[in-house]
Amino acid sequence: MYKNGTAHNSRGLVQLALFSAIIIAMAMVPFLGYIPLGFMRATIIHIPVILGSVLLGPRKGAVLGGVFGLTSLVNNTVSPNVTSFVFTPFYSLGDVHGSWASLVIVLVPRILVGVLPYFVFKGLKRLLGSAPGKLTVSLGAAGFVGSMTNTLLVMNLIFVFFGESYGAAKGVAADAVYPFILSIIGLQGVPEAIVATIIVALVGRPLLRFASSKV
User: Transmembrane residues, as ranges (predicted)?
Assistant: First the structure.
């Protein structure tokens, strides 16, 4: 019993390290995890966090989300753009400075990306069953929720903590900041969520089969 438990724990740590390495590689290799589009960086680095949440559970998923957040903190500190102050307290733009709120924005939503998909997947799996098609639906829903969790929380926290400064950095009038944020959610967040839905649904099933075969 003890040996089996030790082997299970060791396997879990190896899986956690593997997913963490994938996240770090995606964050550090240009165009892999953050795709620069000039006016924004499209994010796909949340996908291994979502997959890790489903496969490894919410605790390890939260760790992976934290790794995701830390890579974003590092990227926005060493390679900043005009709005990097919302993601790092170590960057300023004119009179606008990052603060403790930057740490909330860069970490809390990303940690939740590693938590919520697990419960969405488990809840839908319990409700729909484990037939292949229904499992695909549950995985896709977990991908969609995880991606939208990141987008909705990040963008709304930016508005709460840095709305006026963010608008000024983007050249947006104060009374148009939230409509501008909604446009980003629609134009960037929704396509990212659709991509996450498809990839998590397609990749999740073989990963689940592989994981169950190792139990």
Answer: 12-32, 38-56, 63-87, 99-121, 141-162, 177-204
- C-alpha 165: how far from chain center: 24
**Domain limits at 63?**
2-213
Q: CA-CA distances (angstroms) from residue 93 to 82, 88, 181? A: 7, 12, 20
What's the CATH code of the domain at 181?
1.10.1760.20
CB atoms within 10 A of CB 28: 13
Q: What pLDDT was estimated at residue 12? A: 84
| Count of the separate structural domains present in the chain | 1
